Amino acid sequence: APERNGTVGGIVLQKFRELRYPELYRDDKGKEGWYTSASAKPPKIDRYNMLKQYEEAIRLRATVVRSFEAIGEMSTFIRSDGGKYKALSGRMDDRVLARAITWQIRSTKPRGTFGFGSYKRLASSYS
Question: What is the spatial distance between Cα 4 and Cα 119, in angstroms, rounded to a whole number?
Fold first, then answer.
């Protein structure tokens, strides 16, 4: 689920639409993309709690990270003294946020409501 925040999020979503990407994530109001905010009212989740839950999932081994690049990015992703999660200065956080968003969707959507079937059909259309 691409983030819909800001200019970049809008550009990414527009590209997905142009490619007619199937099964693009929609929230409970039907809006495309995932909205990450500093604060959110339940049942939505704010950025801090989303990242905290993902951190806990990794710690409890509810999910496994096999990507060397993602592990490297996670090693420079910190919780500041003020409690804010962020990448160290000059480092990236794209993989961390993408995985945290994926974890949230997996945690909130019933099993069997998403899959790779449409992705495989889309990929084969480019062959």
Answer: 20
